[in-house]
Recover the amino acids of this structure.
């Protein structure tokens, strides 16, 4: 029986990919992992050299991540021998090598290992044959995953042979994916070691699934020394992989802007998915996203909204803001003016450091009075209530005496505000009429009655 949920493909290697798979199990209906097999160190390197098989270590980690929790086989696969001729070998690596030797087929061996563990998804090697990872750095060529991982200023990654064959199941999984999760993990030796397979790179370009890059929290020295998120994304693009969403660094930075008790509450949740949001009239031209997080299970969701904050219209008339970025300015202003702000109100920068965002819960808690049905007495009361609320908020943001002195005793400000409101309402009507005209003429496609 098919489990409800999206079809998710995760790719990369190492501990990062296995962590992604454990998180993916919480929401995916179908799971596939595509794993780098260029490792030439440790137990994997020894078995690869002895039996001519793709490196089994990261494959083992992924099988365990998708296995039945705390079974004997799960614990045994991770057991590593501490002495004797088997010192350093993980038992699971030996099982995969033994099954390959017995069946003569590495793909069959992985499938049988998955059956032993009771895995809930499929695990594919990036290539069906052993490959050598090759890097270009500083005008020199470096071969071997261990050597590459100890190299900095890497400009390109490739494989030897240059065009190895991936398992057909890996290509098919990408073609049917709703979401592709890339990383976290070593950028050049795990993530791009998969992307370097030409057939997989083509399948990634053609996949209908949203490509989500989970970036490392900190650089891996010396491989990605001095890399920020933007540098990671540029490296992916230089190797033919364009991603739709970048996670982790922005989420970590946003979380750091919250109060300690709210950070603690947010740690109960994991990021599941991200979608671009079509923004309303007041936000035209800005970027907005919705982020789905999940707590204890699928019945415990949390939706956050991320909106771009741009330059204030008042900036050219006022002294320079004391805040370092516009997202922080918006958040601190709301915290100052509102009696109680959203508990998850925070800010961060985008992948492009010149773009600023603020975060809050996605919920429509706004109320609105139907002013056209009010009698004069009720309308007057409503106007006074709105004015009192705005005055209270602005009084919290500055010196109320200075504000009162600025407004003075005349009705100049009142008339200015009224004039602005009328003009704004007229502009809204004109914009709507133009929009309806464009729809009726066929210049814009729209569906009515939704």
């Amino acid at each position: 029986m098919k489990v409800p949920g999206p079809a998710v493909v995760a790719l990369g290697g190492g501990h990062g990919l296995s962590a992604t798979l454990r998180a993916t199990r919480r929401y995916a209906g179908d799971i596939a992992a595509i794993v780098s097999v260029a490792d030439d160190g440790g137990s994997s390197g020894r078995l690869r050299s002895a039996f001519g098989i793709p490196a089994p270590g990261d494959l083992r980690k992924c099988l365990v991540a998708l296995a039945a929790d705390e079974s004997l086989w799960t614990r045994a696969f991770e057991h590593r021998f501490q002495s004797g001729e088997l010192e350093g070998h993980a038992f699971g690596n030996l099982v995969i090598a033994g099954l390959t030797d017995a069946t003569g087929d590495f793909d069959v061996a992985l499938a049988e290992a998955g059956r032993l563990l009771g895995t809930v998804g499929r695990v594919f090697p990036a290539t069906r044959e052993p490959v050598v990872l090759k890097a270009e750095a500083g005008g020199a060529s470096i071969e071997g995953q261990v050597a590459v991982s100890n190299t900095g200023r890497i400009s390109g990654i490739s494989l030897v042979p240059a065009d190895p064959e991936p398992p057909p199941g890996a290509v098919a999984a990408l073609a049917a994916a709703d979401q592709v999760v890339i990383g976290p993990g070593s950028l050049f030796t795990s993530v791009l070691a998969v992307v370097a397979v030409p057939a997989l790179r083509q399948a990634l370009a053609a996949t209908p699934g949203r490509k989500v890059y989970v970036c490392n929290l900190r650089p891996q020295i010396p491989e990605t020394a001095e890399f920020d998120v933007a540098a990671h994304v540029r490296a992916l693009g230089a190797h033919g992989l364009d991603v739709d969403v970048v996670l982790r660094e922005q989420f970590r930075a946003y979380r750091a802007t919250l109060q300690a008790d709210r950070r603690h509450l947010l740690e109960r949740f994991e990021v599941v998915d991200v979608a671009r949001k079509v923004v309303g009239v007041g936000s035209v031209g800005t970027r907005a996203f919705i982020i789905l997080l999940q707590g204890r299970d699928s019945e415990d969701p949390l939706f956050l909204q991320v909106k771009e904050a741009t330059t204030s219209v008042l900036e050219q008339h006022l002294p320079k803001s004391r805040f370092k970025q516009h997202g922080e300015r918006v958040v601190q202003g709301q915290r100052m003016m509102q009696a109680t702000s959203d508990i998850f109100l925070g800010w961060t920068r985008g992948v492009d450091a010149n773009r600023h965002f603020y975060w809050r819960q996605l919920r429509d808690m706004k109320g609105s009075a139907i002013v056209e049905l009010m009698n004069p007495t009720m309308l007057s009361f409503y106007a006074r209530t709105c004015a009192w609320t705005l005055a209270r908020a602005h009084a919290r943001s500055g010196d109320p005496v200075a504000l009162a002195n600025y407004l003075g005793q005349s009705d100049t400000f009142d008339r200015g505000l009224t004039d602005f409101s009328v003009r704004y309402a007229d502009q809204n009507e004109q914009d709507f009429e133009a929009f309806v005209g464009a729809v009726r003429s066929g210049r814009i496609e729209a569906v009515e009655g939704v």
